[in-house]
């Protein structure tokens, strides 16, 4: 309790003749006995204060034996007994004191303490209330009665009494802080902040007050003020773990990752077993591209026992996945699920990892999906009726909701922007449910296009589903699948009568109640429908339509074919390392063996450090591609990444998980991608994009065919140069960049689904089940 000094006992002496109803004069012998009893009691009080409880008890008993009507000695003896958990004997002492002086408030206060210590809270409340009736200025009784109300979760009574106490004792810092804590609990943060600041006026260096001020300011998004307050706290309490930790979170939320690392390092230096700090340190290192340091921090966190250990296990798994160590990844996700079988982020991370295709067959992936589905069904009670207007009501717009954590500068945002911009708002009313707060240029462009924009990042699944249900959404579209920041468990509640998976994921979600998956017949052939829990709704052409990158001086035109100047072919790849398996490297090596002058330009975000570049280079060398033929680059701006295509003649796709966004962006920069078609959606997406770009001759059907086509295209520079010069215009005229045509197809799909739902609903009404 802030500022409170609990008076465990009273140190006053026996009242003299002026305050007690005793004879005006005492016999000398009696006066001597009273004096000796007082002396023994004072000695006992000092012993009790120093923690010498047994000796204190003995002195109190001696005082009572000399002066049997010494009420205060009985009271303080009860405290000594209570501290030794001799509750029955302590109660006897208080009863004896009550017989001697029934109007003494401290007797009832200590009876309350005795009851409180035994968790008899109703009795404790009654005794504390009696004490305050007798002595309305007993500060300790206020404290302990408020505490008891809090223990019994009677927050209304606690708040009312604390308010009265603060009014009575306005200079009592402990009460101000207690009241501020109660206001914080009630989420009355402005009131709490005022009270904490009042306390700081009286005690400017009160560390706990500064801590609470910092915490509230951070929660209100006043990050500059919160940072200053945490720094002030560290001046007062330089070893305060929480200050360093929360300062780190302030930096993290502003992407000030170098400063975040420094703060978290100071936090773990103070508290080496702080698993959450090690976890956040790993996240900060990861955001800086320092993957070795991130892995070490995640592994440290995983070895510690803390509430959110599953977060560390999944993050370690994701890092291992992102550095191409897929087999190690699965063990991390399974360890997280052993701790918490309902940690759906672990399931999603595992399914996303398995969707890369080189670890399991489509059938084995389905087995894992079924396990995920069974857990969802335990927790989600699906809606069966909805608040949206009658399905057959004419002349109303469909309410279409989108759920994503990527409403911003992200591949999902790049594909979504022009579709949203071209939706016919006479037919559809759009709602966004953002599972990750983003605030960038793309967010600013698309946000006004939605009739409603709600953040569900910190809302539990059931509450998020209820929000969507209350909004009367007709069709709810998931844009994430099992990728980061997904809210697939929300869909298991079936908050909308129709639910659709589209755009961000190249496999089935397995979510019960996900009615459809939007696809094209190349990415999901008819004979692959069995691999999906959703019904496939086929679009007339591509399922993906990219918003053209903004043109500028750097990107306004397509560069000339670099091979014409270099006299050698430069193959390129901009794929995430997690897609780059040994099978891919072996096949690429066959191409480089056949083309000894060819070079490789490889770029991705994981290659931001010399350590990661060396690891990747070693992998290439192990597969027979010599180091001098390879150039590697780390992360950069989107414009710089697109401009880098000027150095590349041909993109080599990865497999079985091929490119999507990178393939479309390469079209824009005039660079074709060589793809190897596979046996699942993730390995057919590239074939789909190439087909709809009119580049069917860039799709290989076998390993040998892949090598053959690479050499064929690379050795016909005239044809390659002509393709480069025309590819942007070709794709702009086709479905991959034709947002208006794609959006009409998209709208027709949603309206078709809705029409089918209307007819099915009408049929159910006309022919109810017996």
TrEMBL record:
SMART domains recorded: TPR
Pathway: Protein modification; protein glycosylation
Enzyme Commission identifier(s): 2.4.1.255
SUPFAM superfamilies: TPR-like (SSF48452)
UniProt repeat feature TPR, residue ranges: 71-104, 105-138, 241-274, 275-308, 310-343
InterPro entries: Glycosyltr_41/O-GlcNAc_trsf, OGT/SEC/SPY_C, TPR-like_helical_dom_sf, TPR_rpt
Family according to the record: Belongs to the glycosyltransferase 41 family. O-GlcNAc transferase subfamily.
Keyword Glycoprotein listed: no
PROSITE patterns attached to this UniProt entry: TPR, TPR_REGION
Domain O-GlcNAc transferase C-terminal: 377-542, 564-744
Protein's organism: Undibacterium pigrum
Keywords: Glycosyltransferase, Repeat, TPR repeat, Transferase
Protein name: protein O-GlcNAc transferase
Family matches, as Gene3D superfamilies: 3.40.50.11380, Glycogen Phosphorylase B, Tetratricopeptide repeat domain
GO molecular function terms noted in the UniProt entry: protein O-acetylglucosaminyltransferase activity
């Amino acid at each position: 309790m802030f500022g409170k000094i609990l008076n465990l006992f009273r140190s006053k002496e026996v009242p003299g003749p002026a305050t007690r109803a005793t004879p005006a004069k005492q016999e000398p012998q009696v006066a001597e006995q009273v004096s000796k009893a007082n002396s023994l009691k004072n000695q006992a009080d000092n012993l009790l204060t120093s923690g010498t409880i047994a000796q204190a008890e003995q002195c109190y008993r001696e005082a009572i034996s000399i002066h049997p009507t010494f009420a205060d000695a009985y009271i303080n003896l009860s405290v000594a007994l209570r501290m030794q958990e001799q509750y029955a004997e302590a109660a006897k002492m208080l009863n004896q004191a009550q017989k001697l002086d029934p109007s003494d408030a401290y007797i009832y206060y200590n009876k309350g303490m005795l009851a409180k210590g035994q968790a008899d809270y109703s009795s404790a409340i009654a005794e504390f209330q009696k004490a305050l009736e007798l002595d309305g200025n007993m500060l300790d009784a206020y404290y302990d009665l408020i505490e008891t109300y809090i223990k019994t979760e009677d927050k209304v009574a606690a708040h009312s009494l604390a308010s009265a106490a603060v009014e009575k004792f306005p200079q009592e810092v402990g009460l101000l802080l207690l009241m501020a804590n109660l206001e914080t609990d009630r989420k009355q943060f402005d009131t709490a902040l005022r009270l904490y600041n009042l306390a700081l006026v009286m005690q400017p260096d009160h560390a706990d007050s500064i801590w609470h001020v910092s915490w509230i300011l951070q929660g209100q998004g006043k990050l500059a003020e919160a940072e200053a307050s945490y720094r002030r706290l560290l001046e007062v309490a330089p070893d305060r773990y929480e200050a360093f930790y929360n300062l780190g979170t302030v930096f993290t939320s502003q992407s000030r990752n170098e400063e975040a690392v420094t703060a978290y390092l100071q936090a773990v230096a103070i508290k080496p077993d702080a698993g959450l700090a090690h976890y956040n340190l790993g996240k900060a290192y990861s955001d800086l591209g320092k993957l070795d340091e991130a892995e070490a921090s995640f592994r440290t966190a995983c070895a510690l026992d803390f509430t959110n250990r599953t977060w560390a296990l999944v993050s370690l798994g994701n890092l291992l996945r992102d550095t191409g160590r897929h087999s190690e990844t699965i063990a991390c996700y399974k360890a997280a699920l052993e701790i918490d079988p309902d940690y759906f982020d672990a399931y999603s991370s595992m399914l996303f990892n398995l969707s890369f295709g080189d670890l399991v067959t489509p059938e084995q992936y389905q087995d894992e999906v079924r396990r995920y589905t069974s857990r969802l069904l335990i927790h989600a009670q699906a809606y069966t009726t909805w608040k949206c207007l009658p399905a057959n009501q004419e002349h109303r717009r469909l309410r279409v909701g989108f759920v994503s954590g990527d409403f911003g500068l992200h591949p999902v945002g790049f594909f979504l922007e022009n579709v949203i911009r071209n939706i016919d708002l006479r037919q559809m009313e759009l709602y966004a449910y953002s599972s990750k707060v983003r605030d960038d240029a793309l967010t600013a462009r698309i946000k006004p296009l939605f009739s409603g924009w709600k953040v569900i990042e910190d809302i539990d699944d059931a509450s998020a589903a209820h929000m969507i249900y209350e909004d009367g959404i007709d069709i709810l579209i998931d844009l994430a699948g099992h990728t980061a920041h997904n809210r697939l468990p929300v869909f298991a509640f079936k908050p909308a009568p129709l639910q659709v998976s589209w755009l961000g994921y190249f496999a089935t979600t397995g979510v019960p109640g996900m009615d459809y998956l939007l696809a094209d017949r190349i990415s999901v052939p008819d004979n692959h429908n069995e691999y999906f829990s959703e019904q496939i709704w086929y679009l007339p052409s591509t399922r993906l339509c990219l918003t053209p990158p903004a043109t500028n001086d750097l990107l306004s035109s397509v560069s000339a074919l670099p091979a014409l100047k270099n006299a050698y072919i430069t193959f390129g790849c901009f794929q995430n390392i997690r897609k780059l398996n040994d099978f891919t490297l072996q096949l690429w090596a066959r191409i480089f063996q056949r083309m000894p002058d060819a070079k490789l330009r490889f770029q991705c975000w994981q290659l931001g450090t010399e350590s990661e570049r060396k690891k990747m280079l070693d992998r290439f060398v192990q597969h027979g591609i010599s180091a001098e033929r390879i150039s590697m680059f780390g992360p950069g701006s989107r414009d710089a990444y697109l401009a880098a295509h000027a150095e590349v003649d041909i993109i080599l796709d990865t497999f079985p998980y091929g490119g999507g966004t990178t393939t479309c962006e390469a079209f824009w920069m005039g660079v074709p991608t060589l793809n190897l078609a596979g046996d699942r959606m993730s390995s057919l997406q590239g074939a789909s994009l190439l087909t709809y770009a009119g580049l069917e001759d860039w799709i290989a059907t076998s390993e040998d065919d892949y090598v053959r086509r690479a050499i064929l295209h690379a050795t016909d520079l005239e044809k390659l140069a002509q393709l480069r010069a025309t590819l942007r215009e070709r794709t702009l005229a086709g479905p991959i960049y034709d947002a208006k045509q794609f959006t009409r197809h998209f709208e027709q799909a949603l309206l078709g689904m809705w029409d089918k739902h209307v007819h099915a609903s009408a049929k159910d009404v006309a022919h109810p089940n017996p």
